[in-house]
């Protein structure tokens, strides 16, 4: 063997080991944060990416079976099993195979299946990459996050602003009633996982750290909740829905109350 081979072989071995090491978990903390490697899938959901980065989900972003999702959402975030099962069942349609038993984070990128326009932190599919965190887009959302403790109204305002920007400038803008329900859950999610659900408030540093790094804000003092269940999700999403109304009296317009001659009643009356 030539001398150069002898000298470079250990170096190659070392550099190969260190190239691999980001994917190798220290035994002391199997859920230490490690970003995605080049062959790992990630998607449009900052939390699913986060759970993969912490290896609560498979770190490669593949094979998200019901069992894997229940374990990840339970161990990582404190979601109860019934809730986690339901979320997985609603998401498995992202895998185009009939009767699929798993999905991947890449499946979540399929546009207008679960992924949708007007995300808080990703650009619309029409404009480019619909799933990688986009700081410029995120800043247009955080513009409305005006205090260190975020409120439901502030996140609702950022949701409306993103929808308005998409509706105005994206000729393919699509946002159905079903999307709206999904979107309300997403906007409620930071309050559910990181904040106080009854008051619908959350520490802004937790939320920004999570979005930007796709990492649980443990080092900022966040602690996993004991148990999060479906009724809490429904209530918090409902509060965001109310906060997203642009009316100030809490009511809704009732077309049957409009009379002929009312200026805004339109030509149909
Ligand atoms: C089975 C579990 C889950 C699935 C399949 C899932 C899937 C998705 C998908 C497909 C999107 C993209 C929607 C879009 O285009 O904006 C999304 C967004 C989002 N998800 Fe998840 N998600 C899950 C659980 C969670 C949990 C537990 C949280 C808790 C924090 C969360 C937080 C969010 C947030 C905040 C967004 C909005 C991102 C944005 O608007 O930029 N998700 N999720």
CATH superfamily of the largest domain: Chloroperoxidase-like
Task: Say how many strands there are.
Answer: 4
Strand content: under 5%
Bound molecules: protoporphyrin IX containing FE
Low-confidence stretches: 1-21, 260-269
- What is the subunit organization of this protein? single chain
CATH topology of the largest domain: Chloroperoxidase
Order of helices and strands: HHEHHEHEHHEHH
Widest sheet, order of strands: 1-2
Q: Given the helix and strand composition, which structural class is it?
A: mainly alpha
Task: Compute the average pLDDT.
Answer: 89
Provide the gyration radius in Å: 22 Å
Instruction: Determine and state the CATH class of the largest domain.
Output: Mainly Alpha
Main sheet: strands, sense, barrel: 2 strands, antiparallel
Distance between the termini: 93 Å
Question: What fraction, in percent, of the residue positions are helical?
Answer: 40-55%
Number of domains: 2
Treating each run of at least 4 consecutive H or I residues as one helix, how many helices? Answer: 9
3D shape:
globular
GO molecular function, one term: peroxidase activity
Protein name: Cloroperoxidase
Cofactor: heme b
Pfam families: Peroxidase_2
